[in-house]
Write a structure and sequence with these properties.
Number of helices: 3
Number of domains: 1
Largest sheet: none
Mean pLDDT: 86
Structural class: mainly alpha
Low-confidence stretches: 50-55
Order of helices and strands: HHH
Shape: elongated
CATH topology: Four Helix Bundle (Hemerythrin (Met), subunit A)
């Protein structure tokens, strides 16, 4: 399998994760929408192994949306808002669009 084909596989799954994020946001599962946005972007970036993912805003949503002990009290869904989910989805959309454009060349 070529690098481009492998990159497209990762991108396809990233797009699927982004779709899940949008559905979850509409159902008010904001913490899960943020997590799936982070996953969408990370999978899209797998095609660019030389990029530094640590600087991406979405990385901070990898653990906290899933684990209650990431917060001093309560559960993750109590900390995330529609605005958080919307921002994460927009970041993921932007990253996936860049990867899609690159792989189309």
């Amino acid at each position: 399998m070529s690098n481009i084909e492998e990159g497209k596989r990762w991108l396809n799954q990233g797009e699927r994760d982004l779709g899940a994020a949008m559905v979850l946001m509409d159902k008010e599962f904001y913490e899960s929408a943020c997590f799936h946005s982070q996953q969408a972007a990370e999978k899209a970036l797998k095609s660019f192994k030389d990029l530094n993912r640590a600087s991406i805003e979405l990385d901070k949503h990898y653990i906290p949306p899933r684990y209650p002990d990431a917060f001093p009290s309560g559960s993750p869904f109590e900390y995330y808002t529609r605005e958080d989910a919307d921002k994460c989805i927009k970041y993921a959309e932007s990253i996936l669009a860049e990867v899609r454009n690159f792989l189309a060349k």
